[in-house]
Amino acid sequence: MDDSGFIRLRLDRRTFLKHASSAGLALPLASCIRDGATKSEEVSDGTIVESAMVRRINRPILIPWSDNTVRILDTTSALPLAYVSLGLRRVYVENMVRDQVIGLLNAHVSVSTGLWRIPLPGDRPEQPLIPGDTSREFEVAEIWDWDLKADPTEGDFRIMPGAGVRTSIHFSCQPISGKEEWYSAGPWSIDQCDPSLDGTSREDFQQVGEGIRHTDRNCSRPGETVGFLTWVCKGPPIDLVTVP
Length: 244
Hints:
single chain; mainly beta; 2 helices
């Protein structure tokens, strides 16, 4: 992105947040369950968006992940409000919601090092956050430093502008990037963030189910079982209030 594009992106985000704040609006972390729809519109990744409330993915972009897992590529280009990278051990955060994100993560900010100590999934509420526990310590960085094209690590999560919509994933004999392999999976019903809607949502990068890998183009012969990962909207509703 050139400098002018970067500046426009930053101003658009600032304008959005300032407008939400000045209007006295909280940005609720969506419960991510929406129903209904009649009107359909097909977009480039094979997603069918129905009245912007329900969508169907039947021609996903698939990329290799590991020997026995495949990633369903997310085509969202919106910049997160916060991103927790387990692989890089960093928390990327929008300064205007920094304090709210600290509370959301139940994080302790070290005065001496500036690191955020964050409980991991499965930790007991009373479990202490001990200085020097590198598995629970994260550097903090500006969200503008986050690379939208960077590969996530399983367990990463992000806080996105937008609301969750019910998404149906079901596909047959779809090719994967860079390999002579074809895949079938679903149907699965999950929730994903739609940045075109009002609100704020948390998405986790996780496995959503298992499907079949085929080595023949017609998918007529028996294949082997593989797992599929993508972004899933989850978690209890949370209010994320911005300041001007």
